[in-house]
Write a structure and sequence with these properties.
globular, 25% helix, binds flavin-adenine dinucleotide, eight-stranded mixed sheet, single chain, alpha+beta
Length: 816
Amino acid sequence: MKQALPHTARVVVVGGGIAGCAVAYHLARRGWTDVVVVERRRLTSGTTWHAAGLITQARPTSGTREIVKRSLDIFSSLERDTGFSPGFQRTGTLHLADGAARWEELRRQASAAHANGIRAEPISPDEAVKLFPLLYAGDLAGAVYYPDDGRGNATDTTMALAGGIRQLGGQILENVLVTGVTQQDGRVTGVATADGPIEAEYVVNATGMWGREFGARHGIRIPLQALAHYYIVTEPIPGLAPGLPTIKTAPEYAYVKNEGAGLMVGFFEPGSYPWSPGGIPEDAEFTRLPEDWDHLGPFYEKMMKRLPVLADAGIRLHFCGPESFTPDGLYHLGEAPGLRNYFVAAGFNSIGFLSGPGAGGVLADWIVDGHAPLDLPEADPRRAAPHETNRRFLEQRVSETLDLAYEIHWPFQQRTTARGLRRSPLHDRVAAAGAVFGELLGWERANWYAPPGVGREYDYSFGRPSWFEHSAAEHRAVRERVGLFDTSSFGKLLVQGRDAEAVLQRVCANNVAVPPGRIVYTQWLNERGGIEADVTVTRLAEREFLVLSGPATVRRDHDWLRRSIGDGEFVTVADVSTALAMIPVMGPDARRLLQPLTDADLSPSAFPFGASREIDLGFGFARATRITYVGELGWELLIPADLAGHVYDTLTQAGAALGLRHAGYHALDSLRMEKGYRSWGHDISGGDTPLEAGLGFAVAWDKPGGFTGREALLRQREAGLARRLVHFALADPGALAYHDEPVYRDGVLVGQLTSAAYGHTLGRAVALGYVTAPAPGTERSWFTSGTYEVEIACERVAAQASLCPFYDPASARPRS
Ligand SMILES: Cc1cc2nc3c(=O)[nH]c(=O)nc-3n(C[C@H](O)[C@H](O)[C@H](O)COP(=O)(O)OP(=O)(O)OC[C@H]3O[C@@H](n4cnc5c(N)ncnc54)[C@H](O)[C@@H]3O)c2cc1C
């Protein structure tokens, strides 16, 4: 018999898989017991019922590793707290490496895990065999052992969470289809179901592989697509030891674990394909897809060499089930843009079981406290670009996500499917100049330039790739002469209206009430003083401002700004990103290049640092702004898209005599790292304050009316800091860091790198990373004293620490 539908609930969670049940369980534990899980069929009947049950902590980002750690806490406490067992067992995982590159990848991954306090031990092939005696290890370079990993039963875990929800007073409705989300004035008001409406303050979309279509019904884009995903379970294997560590063997694209008296062998194999791309059937329930031995057979056969016991084991189950994957391989967790109190927990890329309990806790805290309990910009639903929900795009891109899951994850690795989508107005011109393109959210971006005769391909390496020297030459041209970038993919928001200044003054920590023609570097803060955005704001006119953001952040910045407009305030925010091309012209000869091309006076006194003006250029014009992200004299030129080609031609023709060089994003990164310019989502995000990030210079403490986050910052200033963003330079010029490497001070783990690059001028790798001191109010000098080391691939490399950049610390060059 169906349970009666409540008329209202504080939170409606749509979807009774592990994610939805985990959100509701944690809400109830936080005292929000007026919560209802609405499930269209039966609990777990989507994808949860067939999860293999692996719980592995080797994840690609610090935030996603923290989520698994939280999940592990819940797996170990769930039985105590609910009386139901999730079937959790701590068995450890062995990740196997078959060659030097993969061995380095695994050791780098282990170092990243160490930064999160996760135990991960590189061991020899012989030691791996001792832990898993059935293994063939003759071809292995090594293994990394994660002793605290485990496994559990996804159905039992979900039922334990459901039991906990009910015990705490929450409700679960099965066999009720949610048909829509109701809203008013940009805020959720409830859900419509096949059995009637439920009013609600909050709605959580935890509909798994239905998430994209469900979101689309009310204008929320959630790029995900179900793919066919396989495992095989053998008949009982005589004498098989129970509780063996899970094996992850990337060379065979496979994992192995005990399953009953046999083994389960699962795959993340190349050649994956979508299931039901036109839409997930409404009646799908406990779905099993047809066996496909032609596809899977060759991978299973390969596994027989790794585990010879498989050759004699009968196959009990050949299972294929659908699971949702996303274009970037990361799930969507958080509040959606454009609709207040609409939260998403979906797109789990086959780690929904191991992430679900932790992710549910994070989302519940987020809803109750009004902010995320940890920084997860990588999972932010606001990152989704409009094209990413295109079916044809998704089919290709998510298949590639699964294809690459067990491949080596190289630094600077580029996707190869669904390319050529978003092109700068200068695309063909920079392509003719030798650009080798990378991709970011559909944008084709010149990452480096191949000189004539050099192939335009990426080769990947954890060391110096073949394009290292070409990128170095671009870097040097910017430092020594002049370089030109095409950064047209940057986000641009036009903010106009009577109250534009008032709104921006409230949102920006810096003072943007400047005269027209000035640019201001600023952060946007939340109430806790954390950095929600890192932008420049140019005042174009009395009631008109231009906000410059990144291509990956423009949608969230747009959303943040729109939410900040109060009732009765007259302001519009328009995304004009594609209307304007952007060419930074940077280097000590930038003035020599530009001055003959314009009647505007570019002299230091007439056009000082921070000035922004529309100038004539060639036969056209551009908005020229004296600002820099590379640490040299230069102008960022914003040009209407139709004039961009002409301005580019004018610059390159005139630049030939000065040795003007095209420079790409890899050079840009090397240049900005030498200067320690922060990047949002890496070095700074919602959990970092400007004081911790060394951006106190951009805080206008005393501007009239204050700004959002000021009180929290004042309290932090009063208490003193326990955590600071520190610049590092590695002592060994051959060492290369990328991100997430742990940092030790006098042998004690004190932090983690947030970004790093090789500094071609400094001749060594430079990085930024947070260091945490024992207590608030620690002296500045503590952060740079002591002996620092950075752990790379499980080896420690000496590092120099500084609170100012290693290159041009006084910033004299951009002001010259
Ligand atoms: C072969 C295979 C092996 C796997 N192995 C592992 C593993 O070892 N470890 C791991 O972590 N993960 C694994 N996974 C992935 C894991 O199963 C999923 O990531 C996880 O179950 C996703 O949970 P969910 O709650 O997001 O989605 P689901 O379990 O699909 O739950 C979503 C629910 O929403 C309901 N719903 C949809 N639309 C509506 C609506 N309109 N109204 C009401 N209800 C609705 C659905 O009926 C469904 O029950 C595996 C997946 C597969 C296919």
